[in-house]
User: What shape does this take?
Amino acid sequence: MNRQDPKKLIPKDQIRGIGRLFAWACATMCLTPLILVFAVSTTQVWQRGPWAGGFTLKYLVQGWNTISPYAWFSIKLAFLVLILNFIIGIPTSWVLARHRFPLRNFLFSLTNVPIAVPGIAMGLALIITYPLLRRNGFLLVAGHLLYTLPYFISSLTPQLSESSVQDVEWVAATLGANFPRRLIYVIYPKIRTSLLAATIMVVTLSMGEFNVSFFLFNPQNKPLPVELYSAYITGRIEVAAAITLCFLCFVVPAAILLERLGGAKVGNA
Amino acid sequence: MSRVVSPASLQFDQISFTYPGGKQAAIKDVFIDVKPGEIVVFVGPSGCGKSTLLRIAAGLLFPEKGRLIIDGEDALPLPPEKRRIGWVPQSYALFEHLNIAENVGFGLKMQKIPKHQRDEQVADMLKLCRIQDLAKRSVRALSGGQRQRVAIARALAVNPRILMLDEPLAALDPQLRIAIRADLEELLRESGVTTLFVTHDQSEALAVADKVVVLRDGQVEQIGTPDELWNFPANSFVAEFLSNAITASAMVAAEKSVVLAQKLACSINKECAVGKEVKLALRKDNFVISEQGIEGRIVFCEYNGGVYQMRVEVQDGLIIPVSSTRELPIGALISVDFNRETEISVVGI
Amino acid sequence: MEQELWKRIRIALLSLIFPVLLGGFLFWPLLSLGLESISGDEGALSLALYKEVLLSKHYLSSFWNTFLLSLLSTLIALVVCIPAGIYIEGDEGKDRKLLAVALTIPLSLPGIVIGFFVIITFGFTGVVPKLFEILTGTRRLAFAYTFYGMLLGYVYFQIPRVVLTIRGAVSNISQDVLDSARTLGASTLQTYWYVILPTLKPSIISAASLSMATGFGAFGTAATLSRGYRVVPLEIATAFTENFQPKLAGAMSIILVLITTLMLFGINKLVDLDKRSRGEGVR
Assistant: This one.
């Protein structure tokens, strides 16, 4: 009997092939700059080419020294925004997930409204309306909050409304657990992963936020991306790259972790 | 209505298949022969490989060994779109972005049949399956039974030489199942197409099939007509699965006869040497409740719509299945006798 | 039923937190921005600023540039990401997980960083021009600060988002449906054209609308890369920070917000209406 190789007989999918090609092209395009940033930041004289003049860490050191105050500020800001997200976002998600009331759908649409508003418009509107609040950084926090809440709420609401979570909670209730206990022992463990993903998302979004911050910062309250921007416009390219590398070190591992946890959302250009 | 149908024959010739990452073979050396126009039912417990066989026949899975012969030619090199078969999965897989008429006409469109002709054939098919009122409707608004008919209409519209149905009735409400089953069988006979029908319901298999293939763990246990499988099961698994039989052993007392519980003489379906110990499959139609007979105690009783299925424990711990139209309490004593119009099947020597 | 009432009050209070925040920090500011932009010098209402924006060649060309960049980057991203997304969500290929992670990393990068990437790749001292110089003697492809540089930046930005949306939609297509299509005689190409793409259509449309809206609002990338090529967000920034014309900036902002909101909600409404008219269910 003439045996044919089965693998050759399985028809090849040309579109998959194209998709694979495009996916690789995109991935390469997206990731090569990361390597390049490393190269630029460690080259003595970038103008003459990659690693012309030798490998050096001096720009990295210089860069880190320049931006560390702003990095700390961004981190503090991100965590403040995170806490506010928890305070405002969790009750809102809860109400959306668990209750049916007349304007529920309207509220749900409302939570997506900030996405439609470009960051600079938001920033400009805030500054013109509350010029006095700019000084103490209040507006900055408000801007970041508005920017991150939609993503937080839209990733948490589906989790809370999932029937498996509700069923387990209801069983716990019939077994005698009151609400605080149910929250701690039943609900929290179930949504822990999503909560972690939402946290990472809010922190990364806040740390990378530029469009709104551009109008709302002041010299005492300057987030990292705004400082990055000044470096791009005025600084030496090696230093700019070094600063970028520091920024990436914060943001890229968090992004990978986020993807692993299964929740990735998008931010503004 | 004239339908140009040339039903094909099909053979699975020593087919073996293992799922990638699977620890054991899903299909082992299966040989099945299907004649043109036959309705062949693959039946067996979950995981026995019946759906896998269907997918191999459809070209969606590729066996590592064996040949698939359709109408005399090797079908394995053919991709699914060239095998000229119809395949209906358990989920029906209707195209939600098309309406019913477009769903049914999909295969014809792929064959580039001109619209005018296509519309005619679609209308014919909708009438045959009695869903002509649904033509313009969207898929989402249909009931389970309607979806099933659309899925089958869609598969039949391209005049397949073989039709493959994967658990077509499983997704329907139980009370509808028997009525729809009758409809389906009528449709299949009318169109005359060779049909491979997968089910896990043994009563369905016996009702619809020309030929039944009983599968377990990827292997064929027995192939035969429903009658053959009922009266002459090849082994205890087939007997238990198809007819809910209870296995027991007894010694052959005389030619084609055994004595159960030392008192009840029963005929068996095979000639065996006297004195030999044989394994038997006791079916409920083998026994009746009667004054003459042996005494036993009811250990199990379940209502099954019109009759009560019971199990009676007689001497030596032997359990005998029997049915009755009267309800009798568990623990009561009754007498059961062998039904002389039947024969007990021998399933092992 | 005091408990019922108490529950209702609780729900009302909880559900009002977000709207209050939104009202105070988004709606009211936008409203006052709008009012500012239509208030003339003596307090009378006037649309002079809007006229100035919409009728001047300079600003109109900014709008046109912004539109062009958004449209082209959206189209390129769609053409590239639809096959890529289909591949990643498929079930064959060991590199899919790696690709998925690789394409998610840029999601968290702000526009300015992407602009910087374009600079170090295709700027005056970028890698590619340098390579050209080494190979051919002349520096070529240093287009970072031109339209093409910005386009590249915008495309870089759109790709991860579009891929994510497409992946989500593809994962909802059942394998049974694809297998059925094949057994009905559809070739690979036909399966894509008649089954996969139509099923993806709603997601493609919403990805496109989000993409266009984001492109219109993109500021960071433009700020880093633009040397003379004007887009609306840049005009707004310049009007405010350099020219001290807050009202003009406000007018342009309002127009921008109207455009992006219209794009996002308008297109989705159109998709819903289209579905309803074809008899498909709308969630």
